[in-house]
Design goal:
With 396 residues, this protein is an alpha/beta fold. It has twelve helices and 16 strands. The protein has three domains: 220 residues, Spore Coat Polysaccharide Biosynthesis Protein SpsA, Chain A; 89 residues, Phosphorylase Kinase, domain 1, CATH 3.30.200.20; 54 residues, no CATH class. The strands form four sheets. Strands 5-4-1-6-9-8-10 form a seven-stranded mixed sheet, sandwiched between helices. Strands 12-13-14-16-15 form a five-stranded antiparallel sheet, with no helix packed on it. Helix 4 crosses helix 6.
Length: 396
């Protein structure tokens, strides 16, 4: 009897925590999503504690973004950290691939889940995926099941449906077969944006995965900072983030006046997020890592000051010469000049010609030869990628 039960004993847990966490911006600019405190406790720490309460002590956390922030967990909880070097260019399929040889009787968790009542056990009989019921329309992954609870279909989006939400348990037989498929998909081109669940969905008829129905108030997966605010009222007034504090100070506002917060596509050197106050939209720009060597922010501000009110740049509300933080108005209907459209080009050239004729001056000089040489020196120092046409471009 004991040998039989041993086959169901949970071996370990894997927590996927490598991603950036764009839904929690701006908090996640300096804190990984798994370490965001909710009701006084970091998300990851709550999950680790719940696992250990059930005797599951073999815990691996796959990290990537701001990986050094997780180091304290090694001493505090005796967990192992595995680094995913591809976290920024691939989805979580690559994270599970990093630890796929450790899949046995295994729980798989996402770092940004919050679980009210402990749903883990020391033994599990069947593979399952936690699901909650969503009333009305939803964009989540909706499941259909047979009368045994086995998942028979998964559709992205639906109406009044059970959706995949929260932790997963994979049995040893499931893991052995799934690991083979996982490795196969990882090595296949065009799968960079695949989540590990996409592999399961593609191969669904060959795998027995059952629904584990959870109350909607027991498993949470926060979609935005505003959703987190509704769950944890401290985020209406005590958000531990210098960027939120900056906005509050600049606009003389309250934290709950800052709404519609969303991550915007990062530029070549910067990160940006959008927000609204009093029905007006703004962009907050943060300099990217290493940009202090590329751009002189004091000179940048000098240029902004000279061209102010000329209609040739964004309207800057706030600029910090030391940090490079910039807040400017957001233009919802703005479009880029189309270089193939002659009318667009003529209008753009008229603006540039008019600007050039103003003979505006700043207190610094831009020497393009010097700057190109400086940039190339930086590339050599950092062993940056040299493109095949680099020398030819330099000569031109």
């Amino acid at each position: 009897m004991n040998c039989y039960m041993d086959s169901f004993k949970v071996d370990n847990a894997i927590i996927l925590a490598a991603g950036f966490g764009s839904r929690f911006v701006p908090i996640t600019y300096d804190l990984p999503k798994g370490l965001v405190p909710v009701r006084g406790e970091p998300l990851l720490e709550r999950q680790i504690r719940q696992l250990k309460e059930k005797g599951i002590n073999d815990i691996v956390i796959v990290v990537g973004y701001l990986k050094e922030k997780f180091d304290y967990l090694i001493d505090k909880y005796d967990v192992k950290l595995i680094y995913n070097p591809e976290y920024a260019i691939k989805n979580n399929l690559s994270s599970l691939y990093c630890v796929c040889d450790q899949l046995k009787n295994t729980y798989i968790l996402s770092a940004d889940n919050w679980i009210k009542d402990n749903i883990f056990n020391s033994t599990e009989e069947n593979s399952w995926y936690s699901c909650v019921y969503k009333e009305g329309p939803t964009s989540e992954w909706c499941v259909t099941t047979d009368n045994t609870g086995r998942i028979t279909g998964v559709n992205i989006g639906g109406y009044d449906s059970w959706v995949m939400y929260g932790p997963v348990f994979l049995s040893r037989p499931f893991s052995e077969k799934f690991t083979t498929k996982l490795k196969e998909y990882y090595k296949s081109p065009g799968k960079e944006n695949y989540m590990w669940e996409n592999v399961y969905i593609d191969e669904l008829p060959h795998f027995d995965l059952y629904i584990n129905k959870q109350d909607s108030d027991n498993v949470y997966e926060f979609e935005s900072l505003e959703e987190l605010r509704q769950f944890d009222p401290d985020y209406y007034s005590k958000t531990p983030n210098v960027l939120i504090e900056t906005i509050v100070n600049i606009f003389k506002a309250k934290e709950n006046d800052i709404v519609d917060i969303k991550n915007l596509k990062a530029g070549m050197t910067n990160k940006s997020f959008g927000f609204s106050i009093n029905n007006k939209q703004y962009i907050f720009r943060l300099p990217g890592e290493g940009t202090e060597k590329l751009i002189n922010r004091k000179q940048e501000w000098e240029v902004y000051s000279v061209v102010k009110n000329l209609g040739v740049s964004d309207d800057v509300i706030y600029f910090n010469e030391n940090t490079g933080y910039k807040i400017s108005e957001f233009y919802s209907n703005a479009v880029n000049t189309d270089s193939r459209n002659r009318d667009d080009l003529e209008k753009s050239m008229d603006v540039l010609r008019n600007f050039h004729n103003k003979n505006l001056k700043v207190g610094h000089y831009f020497d393009i030869d010097h700057e190109i040489s400086r940039y190339l020196t930086l590339c050599h120092e950092r062993n940056a990628i040299r493109y095949s046409d680099n020398d030819e471009t330099y000569k031109k």
